[in-house]
Amino acid sequence: MESIGTWWMWAVFAAVVLVMLAVDLFLFKGGHQHKVSLKEAAGWSIAWVCVALLFNAGLWWYLDAEAGRALANQKAMEFFTGYLLEKSLAVDNVFVWMLIFGFFSVPIELQRRVLLYGIVGAIVLRTGMIFAGSWLISEFHWILYIFGAFLVVTGAKMLWLADHDPDLASNPVVRFIRNHYPVTPTLEGERFFVMRDGVRYATPLLLALVLVEISDVVFAVDSIPAIFAITADPFIVLTSNIFAILGLRAMYFLLADLGNRFSLLKYGLAVILIFIGVKMLIVEWFKIPIFVSLGVVAAILAVSVWLSLRRSADEAAH
Q1: Three-state DSSP class for residue 86
Q2: CB-CB neighbours of 123 under 10 Å
Q3: Phi, psi torsion values for 29, nearest 5 degrees
Q4: Contact 297/88 with Cβ under 8 angstroms?
Q5: CA gap 100, 170 in Å, rounded
Q6: What CA–CA distance (Å, rounded) separates 294 from 297?
Q7: Contact (CB, 8 A) for 227 and 240
Q8: Which conformational region is residue 197 in: left (phi greater than 0), alpha (psi within -120 to 50 degrees), or beta?
């Protein structure tokens, strides 16, 4: 697997991620029960975006000095495009989280702990899937066409089912847990398990965590093939993915009260998946430049948001 990443670059990236997680967890009590305010969510969202952009700027500066301006520009553009792509596709996952917490009636002050575990699990899962995907592509280049076809089908399915919410009550994993493990009828604070009469009970908060982790798996299966259409460099793929994931929790709380204003965004995300899939399918005959891909993704997002806000304003007026 060809990559610009050296051992110390991987070490710097890991250190940045661990430091930011530690600051969130210990300094700002990220794993403790409290209601996240809009101001706090906005502040953390800006912080995560700034960290990602500073990392990209540092990457460009290093490559510009060591390998030349052309490679520095290319890799920085690949990182930013991958970051924007992953960030935009993550919005659909945020909406799913809203449905999960609403279904189990999890108050907002308990949601942060669940999402912390969800993000950490997603980082571990995503790292393994990206290295596996990079190896598969290096050994079997034709698998890119399978990824492309999968993204086109997934995008078309999203368009078809955009107005349908998942049926959480009939989720097979939730039904399996309920059938094989006693579950309390109500939440027990931020505990996942409680002891009653010598019997260990799971709580609905655990079921919410399980569904959050499952949604992370589904999200990864959709989004990881998409970024391989931008670059096959494992360092760029992983760093842009992880930085996008790290900001997911803050983005969730930022959008928690605004989800109904972006009703058309799912259609835009579906179109983005179809575009990326087509890009992978035609790469042998026509390679779409990175800056064009970035422009298309940004334009689709902008149009989707604008149309959603316009629709929301029209509905409010009537």
Answers
A1: helix
A2: 18
A3: 55, 45
A4: yes
A5: 13
A6: 5
A7: yes
A8: left
Structure tokens at 202: 């799971």
Amino acid in position 234 = P
Token digits of residue 276: 């990326």
* pLDDT tens, residue by residue, 252-306: 887 776 656 777 778 888 888 898 889 888 877 888 888 888 888 889 988 988 8
**97 residue type, one letter:** W
Amino acid at 6: T
pTM: 0.82
DSSP-derived letter for residue 183 is B
Per-residue model confidence (pLDDT) at position 71: 94
| Dihedral (CA of 263, 161, 88, 77) sign | negative
* Contact assessment for residue 242 and residue 86, using Cβ atoms and an 8 Å cutoff: no
pLDDT at 142: 80
Q: Is 193 helix (H, G, I), strand (E, B) or coil?
A: strand
Count of C-beta atoms within a 10 Å radius of residue 65: 10
List, in order, residues 6 or more apart from 102 with CB less than 8 Å away.
none
The pLDDT tens digits for 44-97 are 888 889 999 999 999 999 999 998 999 999 999 999 999 998 888 887 778 788
- Residue that has been written with the tokens 């449905």 in this structure: 99
First-to-last alpha carbon distance for the chain, in angstroms, is 57
* Residue written as token pair 């409680």: 194
Q: Mention every residue, 6+ apart, whose C-beta is less than 8 A from residue 92.
A: 158, 219, 265, 266, 269
257, HSE (Cβ side, Cα atoms, 13 Å): 8
Residue in the block written with tokens 């709580």: 203
Quick one: 165 exposed, middle or buried, by C-beta within 10 A (0-12, 13-18, 19+)? exposed
Q: What is the pLDDT of residues 125-172, one digit of tens each?
A: 888 888 888 888 878 778 888 888 888 888 888 777 666 666 666 678
